[in-house]
Amino acid sequence: MYGGRITNEERSAISTYVGAGIAIVLAVVGIYFFFLTQKEKKETTTFDPNRPIPSDTVLKSRLKAEEYAVVRGNGSQTPFQNEFWNNEKTGIYVDVVTGEPLFASVDKFDGKVGLPTFTKPISKDLLIEVPDSSNEMQRTQVRAKRSNARLGHVFPDPQSPTGQRYVVYSAAFHFVPIEDMKDRGYQAYLALVDKK
Fold it and tell me: Which domains does the chain have, with CATH numbers?
């Protein structure tokens, strides 16, 4: 620098340093958001029984409006117009809040009500039953024990091998097909659905 003036070479060097600094900052920010996205993806697509229950604020941003309305707002779904009522694929149905496996496809049947219907849960210990007198009816509501997500209702059914039928809302679940179960942390449940 001569007499307070910046030469072309100095201007070029400064531009290079500023450009490199901006590139480094952008790379660090990009890497941060990549890992943040991967962490959220892992939390929503894999099962970890030790993972804490997400707060309602997190659930509101993570779940679809209909899912949130069902599991936290006691909403319902239209029969024959929901995702899993006629799903015949092999796999498990997991809690939309925690990813905990609750029902298996081998226990699913057509209950003629337009909602997913099962003869039994994977384990009754994973559910709680609560009296429900809404809509001027006396029913038994079924909720996930760990997340307190509202799942649907359980009814007596003399035709069912268990004497019960669980009529649940599609919006309360994610479905994990058998071919994805191992990669998503559900290998311990493969024996429930593997028909070999």
Answer: 56-193 (2.170.150.20)
